[in-house]
Structures are given as C-alpha cells and as structure tokens.
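User: quick one, fold this
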Amino acid sequence: MKKFSIITFLLLITATASNAQNDGAASTGLAFLKLGAGARSLAMGEAYSSVTNDATAFIYNPARLIIGDKGNVSLMHNFSAQDVSMDYISAKFPAGKKLAFGIGLFTTSVNDIEVRTTPGAAIEKFDARNLSTGLSLGYLVSTNLSIGITAKLIYEKIYIDDASGFGFDFGTNYSKDNYSLSFVVANIGSVSALKNVSTKLPSLVRFGGSYKFNASKSLSILAAADGFQVLSGGGFHLHSGAEAAYKDFLFLRLGYQSGYENRGITTGVGFRYQAWSVDYAFIPYTDDFGTGNAISLGINF
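Assistant:
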C-alpha cells in the first residue's frame, strides 16, 4: 500500500520545486525539468554543465555535444525515494568536426497511487507520469567555444488530467587546456493548463566551471561546480562535485548540493572498459524521504 508520503513526494516532483521550499515553487510546476539524469552526474552533485561529454548533454548543456569525436548512447534508471521512478535514454551523433546532434527521453512516474474520497478503503488507483523528449544540436564556433540548443516536447498526466507543451534550452561552453566554463538557460517555453490551472515552466539559469589535473601517472582528479537559479525566484543553489579516476578504469565520485531542505551529499562509483561504462550513484535524502539509487550504462560508437 502506498503511504501518504508518496503523495507528498509526487507533489514535490510535479507541482512544486523538488525538495526546496524557496525555489520558485509558488509560481512554477513541472519540477522534474530541474532534475538531473545520469548516475555519473548525480554522484557528482549535478555539477555537470561544464563536464558532460556524452549524450547527457541533452539534459545539462547542448553546447557540449560537440565535445569528443565519438557517438554515445546513455541509459539510466533511478530507483528514487518514495517509489518515484526516473528513466532516461539519449544518444548523440557527431556530424563532422563542428556539428553534433542529440536525442533524449526523460520520464518520471509513480504507480498505484490510491484514490480516497473518505477515510477507508481506496476506490481506485492511478499512475502519475511526466515526460520530456526532444532534439539537441551542438556547434563548434571556434577552437574553444561551442553553442547549443535543445527543443523538447513536455507532457504530464496526473489521474485523469493531462497537459502538454514545449520548451527550449540554450547553452554555451568554453574549453581550453584542462578547464571548461559553461552557461545554460533552460526550460524557456509554455505548457497547456492542467485541470484548468495554468502551469509555468521552471525556467532556470545554470552556470559552471570544471578543472581536471593529473595527480600521478595513474590518477586524475576532476573538480566541478555549478550555480543553479530558477528565474521565477527562490534560493540560489551551489552544486559541487569531484571525480577521482584510476587508469581511466575505476572512478570514485562525491558531490554536494547546497540550499535544499532534503538534499546534500551524494556519492558514487563507475567503471569504464573500452567503449562501455557502468555507473552508480547513491543519493540520500533527509526527513524520512529515503534514498535514491541510480544506475547508468554508456556505450560509445
């Protein structure tokens, strides 16, 4: 039986800012559009707009689709808190030295939510689902500077009501030597009314930087930080993360997210062998929200 706390968490996912009271919650919905995807990024506290170099650029920064000369497929399943399930699949396709395309699908869902009109037995059950899918484009403007855009369709359904709309993300990235800087404006668009109530997209700004250095012949360290601000108001959040890579095979990760009531430290591990990578992220929540466990698979081609 689903507990009332699932309804609470569902509302956090679909109608308010995720795990933060002061994050534009009063004036925006579709908070799943602020969530990250990919176990590597989640383990690093989502400090990822200047780090992503695979198909997760669809979520974090389309300008970084151009990083690397290989195609990539990324898949993720997140066993999140309170029976909320998150799934992500995306792919990127280089098209020459200056252009790359990406496609992506991100969903969140809660199943078997009980409906009661009075105390007592449930009269029925329903599912709640959110979906975002679209196309990304990254373009290399100069040796160090790239830009990108994502166009996405958005859909949500709660009980018998649904809504749909569209949104755009715009990103830039500057990379030189071992550091990168990024700036992203995301979720610019509109969505139809859900049960006669208009919903604003959680438009946001994300900016960040990262630096990678070799600690020894076998060990490299990547440090990253992202600033995160919802444009409709609310608190500023700092996402920070680090990754230690041993022989480009074993990866240990740690992250921290500030300014949230129920989020803080994240951690994870990853393995890479030739074209394959497997990653895991552990995301603990406070206030009895439980824990999230994300698993990702990446394939280069």
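User: anything notable?
Assistant: The CA atoms of residues 163 and 173 lie 33 Å apart.
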